Amino acid sequence: MRRPLGTNVSISPVVWPGIHSYLDDKLRFTGCPPGTGISPGSTLLSARHKPLKSKEDLALVPVSTKRMWLRVTDPTSSKRRLCESSRETLAFFAHLSSRDWRPRPLRPPPTSSVESAADAFGKGNDCGVGGWLLLPSGRLLWFAHRYTVKDFLDLGLPMQADANLDISSYETLAQCFVLLAFWKAHSSGRLALTVLSMWSSITGVTLDCSHIAGEKNDDADLLSRWDGSAELPAKFLASNRIELSLSEFWQIRFQVTLFPADTFLKWQLPSADSLGPTNRGSRKRK
Predict the structure, then answer these.
(1) Nearest to residue 225, comparing CAs of 122, 124, 72?
(2) Which of 284, 265, 264, 267 is nearest to 276 (CA)?
(3) Under a CB-based contact definition with an 8 Å cutoff, are residues 7 and 70 in contact?
(4) Which of 18, 251, 270, 278 has its CA 20 to 30 A from that of 220?
């Protein structure tokens, strides 16, 4: 209780080398460092558990590639101020917790042995993701989507103008689409591919991923670069293509869909905002 009242603030290691420009000689913040919600007038007490008394002490703080924790006190407020990214994260979890979750059985679901691969490309303003899944029945499902950087900027994502500079993000998206494609086509099983936690918890599909050498990933690379009109190998049937929506993936909405789309049901699918089937029949029969 003898320590000054303060709160922990996370800061990027990239921002730390320039932190002195936001401090006066008494370690009071004169501005808000990027990616934080620190109020001007707050005082920096410590960094990485190392007490700080002057700006010269900043050079003694060890720096790594991980985010750093600062202890900051704001005498003008008794509340913790959150940066924009923190508010977005809390809003995301508030959205998830406001939805009804289906019951989970105590017995683990059966394992489904599915071979799959996914890849992404980025060049200038253009990018794309593609991949395939080979089901135990021998059916080959696939997806291919082309985007521009603006498609991601419109969703509020801080992407760079050259898509190749964010290629790891697009490759992660391709792996997420593998999960969604499997869920849409085979939602009752468990895919043995390492966890993409958010969508994995929503879909009930557990992923365990491994890297595939580029020369062995030709098909996924081809699909990620497909322009939508060029001829594809005969094994990629149009009827086995799975359409995935970028906006639906990012905004995460619970909505029931059919795959194949012409499957016959004796009721209509519930809307995104309702639960359970209606009493009106489907007009489509497989």
Answers:
(1) 122
(2) 267
(3) no
(4) 251
pLDDT band at 144 (very low <50, low <70, confident <90, very high): very high
Domain residue spans of the chain: 7-84, 111-251, 255-286
Average pLDDT, the chain: 77
Length of the chain: 286
From the candidate CATH numbers 2.30.30, 2.30.42, 1.20.120, 3.40.50, the one assigned to the domain spanning 7-84: 2.30.42
Pick the CATH number of 111-251 from 3.90.700, 2.60.120, 3.30.420, 3.30.70: 3.30.420
Note whether 133 and 140 are within 8 A (CB).
yes
| HSE toward the beta carbon, residue 242, CA cutoff 13 A | 26
Distances (CA, A) of 122 to 129, 149, 175, 176, 223: 9, 9, 15, 17, 13
Residues in Cβ contact with 231 at an 8 Å cutoff, skipping those fewer than 6 apart: none
| Residues 6 or more apart whose Cβ sits within 8 Å of residue 1 | none
- Please tell me which of 64-78, 140-154, 252-266 the model is most confident about, judged by mean pLDDT: 140-154
- Tokens, residue 117: 């691969």
pLDDT for 13-72, tens place per residue? 888 989 999 999 999 999 888 888 788 888 999 999 889 999 999 988 988 888 889 998
For residue 116, list its beta bridge partners. Answer: 133
Which residues fall within 8 angstroms of residue 107, CB to CB, at 6 or more apart? none
pLDDT score at 116: 85
